[in-house]
Design goal:
DNA polymerase, domain 1, 7 strands
């Protein structure tokens, strides 16, 4: 038992069921079904470990002895051979890691930070549409600024915002690769920007109706359809499309609608819910919407889920408007600035914007609910054509 090479090739071929030792911890385990497995027993840090070396059909006696010698030498250095083999397998796998593979891995790691775990797919889309087709198969360690420049050049000026997002995603992927000890150049995106030059694209604001014209549009939505009611509540509350479309009855308590944190647009570090005060007109719209609800969702789609952004945009287009539904947030913000004396921090909170420094926000323990309630009631009166005067914000009790 203490010696080595106790078995022979002929014995291995005809070995009976059981465990047969070749010496120095190498064993052949013969099974009842006729199969057999090479197993190496080693002691590491005072604990015995059994390490499979493969099937005797795939690994000859000679090769099994060679593998056993190799892993025994690893164990003698105080290294767990099983963990070492797993480590080498990971490194071998990463040796030819492509940009696309690392990007998908980075996306998985980033999902908890994204709204709805990134299910909408918008985080990946700039890469899928403009980067993966050209750079996806390149090993990430070989990626350089010329590769990135060539991939983004076709959209650098024509689709500047998409190109900017793609560049940002590439930077995140490279940092993820670096965290795995891959030899990547973290300056690739900055170098690529220098090669691409300054974009000629001029950002355009989302078209919005002037606040003085919003009442006539609002009052045109007389038919109590799902789309009209959703548009009315969107205008009345000033929220973004996503939480509006996914509003559920269980989020409403009296005259307050509480938007869950995962429906809030990605404000870094924001994990809290957001309370929306509901005006009398907003409560009326919600009551009119209740007969349409499915599983509590007030604005269900005729097919599946809830209505889409395109449904709301289509409504405006059919009425001959170039403006977008999201633009009503701008209409509301301009009304707040021009027709009220509300403080900036209250106005910004209405739109779920972060205002002030991090220190100011840390000490500000209010969401201005009562002040916002007054303003949103007056906004609804404006929409109904009941008020043309400047709104004076009353002090909250």
């Amino acid at each position: 038992m203490a010696g080595k090479e106790l078995l022979s090739a002929s014995f291995v071929r005809s070995a009976p069921v059981g465990k047969h030792c070749d010496g120095a911890g190498l064993w052949l385990h013969k099974r009842k079904d006729g199969g057999a497995q090479w197993v190496l027993r080693v002691t590491i840090h005072g604990k015995r470990r059994e390490m499979g070396l493969g099937s005797f059909n795939d690994v000859s006696l000679k090769n099994a002895r060679g593998l056993a010698d190799h892993w025994r030498s690893i164990a003698k250095r105080g290294i767990d051979p099983i963990k070492q083999r797993e480590r080498e397998a990971r490194e071998a796998k990463r040796a030819d890691n492509t940009f696309e593979a690392i990007a998908l891995e980075a996306f998985e790691a980033k999902k908890p930070e994204l709204k709805g775990d990134g299910k909408a797919g918008r985080w990946l889309s700039p890469l899928e549409n403009h980067v993966f087709p050209k750079l996806g198969k390149i090993p990430v360690a070989q990626l350089d600024q010329r590769d990135v420049k060539d991939a983004l050049a076709p959209i650098w000026h024509s689709k500047a915002d998409t190109a900017r997002k793609a560049l940002n995603r590439i930077s995140i992927v490279l940092r993820h690769a670096a965290a795995h000890d891959l030899d990547v150049d973290l300056q690739v995106t900055e170098k690529a920007k220098l090669l691409l030059g300054k974009t000629r694209h001029t950002p355009k604001n989302i078209p919005a109706l002037h606040w003085t014209k919003v009442p006539s549009f609002y009052q045109s939505l007389t038919e109590p359809s799902v789309t009209n009611l959703a548009m009315r509540l969107l205008i009345l509350t000033g929220v973004r499309s996503h939480p509006l479309r996914f509003i559920n009855l269980d989020q409403i308590d009296g005259d307050v609608w509480t938007i869950p944190s995962d429906s809030m647009k990605g404000l870094k570090g924001k994990t809290s819910e957001f309370r929306v005060p509901l005006s009398l007109e907003a409560l009326k719209v919600i009551d009119l919407s209740k007969p349409f609800q499915k599983k509590g969702f007030l604005f269900p789609s005729t097919r599946k889920g809830v209505i889409s952004d395109g449904t709301l945009a289509g409504l405006m287009k059919r009425q001959g408007h170039d403006e977008r539904p999201h633009g009503f947030r701008s209409s509301l913000r301009t009304w707040l600035a021009e027709a009220t004396d509300a403080p900036n921090e209250v106005c910004e909170t209405i739109l779920q914007h972060v205002s002030g420094s991090s220190v100011e926000r840390a000490y500000r323990r209010t969401d201005f609910l009562e002040q916002r309630r007054q303003l949103m009631e007056r906004w609804s009166e404006h929409l109904l054509g009941k008020s043309g005067q400047v709104v004076r914000l009353l002090e909250a009790n």
